[in-house]
Amino acid sequence: MILPYIIKSALTLALLYTCIMPLLEKETFHRLNRIIVLGCLLLSFIIPLIHFTGGTNQTIDMVRQAVQLPEILIDGNANKQSVWSLTDILICIYTLGGVAMLSLTAIQTMSLMLRLRRCEHITDNKGNVIVLTDYATSPFCLFHYIVMSHDDYANNRCFVLTHEQEHIRLRHYIDLIILQFATIIQWFNPFVWLIGKNLKAIHEFEVDEAVLNKGIDATQYQKFLVVKAVGNRLQPFANNLNKESLKRRIIMMNQKRSNRWMMLKALLVIPVATLAVSVFANGTNASETPKEPHPQKTTQTKIHDAVEEMPEFNGGQLAMMEFLMNNMKYPQAAVKAKQQGKAIVGFVVRKDGTVSDVHITKSAGHAVLDEEAIRVVKAMPAWKPGKQKGEPVNVKYSVPITFKLK
Questions:
Q1: Range in 44-48, 124-128, 256-260 with the lowest mean pLDDT
Q2: What domains are there in the chain, each with its CATH number?
Q3: How far apart are CA 181 and CA 123, in angstroms?
């Protein structure tokens, strides 16, 4: 489902950000920091998609000869609810927020492009389009467009063009596109906004370093930044001169280069990412497969297909069927998606009567239906255990559960 994935993705980003960023943000390895920030952003979306299966030791097929109980029919129409579940409400809020962010991005981009079409256009010596506005605006670049006022073009052309050309050369707009899509998806997550702020600051550090390496006077350049660090951010994909990170930028320009050994801090990404995988990746327990979930147990305790005295649900087979039908709820997500199918659930009645090793032996074709079937079978109270030669033994069963919409 989408909601668990989004939550895992947000928590993964929070973990990566809090563990890694504080160690790197003061270092002068701007290119490396940029790669790490983008890597954290991308990993937060990839790690929750990783799927691995645990319990790869020898297993025993419990399906082939299990005693099959009568089929249980779950009518979806009888389970319709007039109120939304908490999950439905959260998904609705999340979707509305995402649509709002996407709409705002589209409106800002289209509005800016329409405004720029009415301005004067010239081409610089690198093939970029310079857009000259009649109104005062803080210079910025958007893809291969460099936007500035006529006044800046007349008086500060060298500083502005050098600065914005570096943004374009370094392809910072690609980072910003990735960041914007991540922000749309995780609009509710404060860490995506924090990592975005850090990424934009790194862009400016990287450009400032490149500009000064071209021989431009540092003092004059910093004075120019102070004068021009005004104005609002016009568009999400734009790199623009702003006052938010100006103090940090000036400090970074005057800071001594970090020792190369400090680059080893970047290796922290490996254990943190490994931790994120172990916590947030999708692991499949053997109990969710047709095989015995804990092979160590099955090698020590025999599981019988049939015994002299079979296990019995308290009240008999009809009581068991009534329990399953009364507790089984047709998932609302499946009702809305018109999903139906037949799941066969395998389980073991242990020596003490408890129900264990619940797993799907035949899927209904929809995970949400399989999960509901497993949930209710796991919830069954203890049975009267089966016996062989007067001794309690483990016995395996399977029960077919059909989800059907009329």
A1: 256-260
A2: 2-52+88-98+159-279 (no CATH), 287-404 (3.30.2420.10)
A3: 30
